[in-house]
Design goal:
This protein has about 350 residues and is an alpha+beta fold. It has helices at about 20-25, 35-45, 100-110, 145-150, 155-165, 175-195, 200-210, 255-270, 285-295, 325-330, 335-345; strands at about 5-10, 50, 50-55, 60-65, 70, 75-80, 115-120, 130-140, 170-175, 215-225, 225-235, 240-245, 275-280, 300-310, 315. It has 11 helices and 15 strands. Strands 2, 5, 6, 7, 8, 9, 10, 11, 12, 13, 14 and 15 form a 12-stranded mixed beta sheet that branches. Strands 1-3-4 form a 3-stranded antiparallel beta sheet, with helices on one face. α2 packs antiparallel against α7, α5 crosses α8 (about 255-270) and α6 packs across α7.
Length: about 350
């Protein structure tokens, strides 16, 4: 169909009960393109969803660029696709009207006087320089656990076997109590990394809009009654996404993180998922990169693109996940870090 037969619209996916089914038909759609994720971000931080779409004459979606407006007195007004999202590529091709959609994004950003607009993935769709790059890792799943386990590095297999003999109990859950237990672990993990945790209400919204609807799960390892490691996964079609991981360093010798990940891989494969995406990894985080590669995942680059309105050009940026601030934040008590995260994240999306 010629591009001339395609119309460009701005929509809010939260107003469309059929959004998830419609966007799932586009190649490359992930959980981050769904209304559930948009609702979590909107209800937690009040970000305004502004999704730009191209529609065919029959009303079906041809191309999508999800965006949210972040309007902060501290960091300015900008468009992000999408806040707190590892990767959210534009969907569609030039033949589907994607160029026209991106022009509409740029025009809207000019009218709203955004400092910039950013695409988290899909840099090649713009033929633009990467503003910042990350590693991405994806594991192809199969129903044979023996084959999956054999793909893992020998060190990973040893860690899983050791963890399996440590008396750990691993459960799959969707409830609020487990979500809160996971958040407590996350606060400890973020302190070690020098990063404030996202607020509990963010995870409560994930539980309400994602987990309770069986669009994801929490995998939690306990030693007796004590949670020691866990991970949150999102589901979209036959693809799973590892979104958050957390652990208590006091129990690191048990290798609970390895057992959580292996049980998650095994379960997702057995129930019919075809792939597991490990999310993004900073280029400087060699330890996390090795952890993900150790499961037999394939590696790629995730590249963001950022258009600066005042420069009228795509600009380079930098990965701000580490730096002097992380050393400082490691010194904060967990209670203070939680307060900082609750106050800051709506500004630094």
């Amino acid at each position: 169909m010629p591009v001339a037969d395609i119309s460009i619209e701005r929509i809010n996916p939260l107003d469309d009960p059929n959004w998830d089914a419609a966007v799932a038909r586009l190649p490359g759609a992930s959980y981050f393109h769904t209304a559930g994720w948009a609702r979590v971000l909107h209800e937690t931080y009040r970000f305004r969803p502004i999704y730009f779409v191209a529609r065919r004459d029959d009303g079906s979606l041809a191309a999508v660029v999800p965006l949210m407006e972040v309007n902060s007195w501290l960091t300015g007004r900008r468009g992000i696709s999408l806040p707190f999202t590892d990767e959210c590529e534009p969907l569609g091709t030039r033949a589907d009207g994607l160029d026209a959609v991106l022009r509409a994004v740029s025009s809207y950003g000019e009218a709203r006087r955004w400092k910039h607009w950013e695409l988290r993935g899909g840099r090649l769709a713009l033929a633009a320089p990467a503003s910042v790059s990350f590693y991405g890792h994806r594991l192809a799943l199969c129903a044979d656990p023996t084959r999956l386990f054999a793909r893992c590095d020998s060190a990973v297999r040893r860690a899983v076997r050791k963890a399996g003999q440590s008396g750990l109990n691993v459960t799959f859950a969707h409830d609020l109590e487990t979500t809160r237990a996971f958040h407590a672990l996350l606060c400890k993990t973020r302190k070690r990394h020098g990063v404030p945790p996202q607020p509990l209400r963010f995870f409560e919204n994930i539980q309400h809009h994602v987990l309770a609807r069986r669009q994801g799960c929490i995998v939690l390892a306990r030693l007796g009654p004590v949670p020691v490691a866990g991970a949150i996964f999102f589901h979209s079609g036959r693809s799973a996404l590892y979104k958050f991981g957390a652990s208590d360093s006091a129990y690191q010798h048990l290798r609970a993180n390895n057992l959580v990940m292996w049980r998650a891989i095994d379960w997702h494969a057995r129930v019919g998922f075809e792939s597991l995406d490990f999310g993004r990894t900073s280029l400087t985080n060699e330890g996390l990169r090795r952890f993900k590669l150790g499961w037999g995942a394939t590696e790629r680059r995730i590249e963001y693109a950022c258009f600066d309105r005042r420069a009228a050009a795509f600009v380079a940026g930098r990965d701000r996940s580490s730096g002097w601030h992380t050393s400082l934040l490691k010194l904060l008590p967990i209670a203070a870090a939680r307060l900082l995260g609750a106050a800051a994240y709506k500004h630094v999306a």
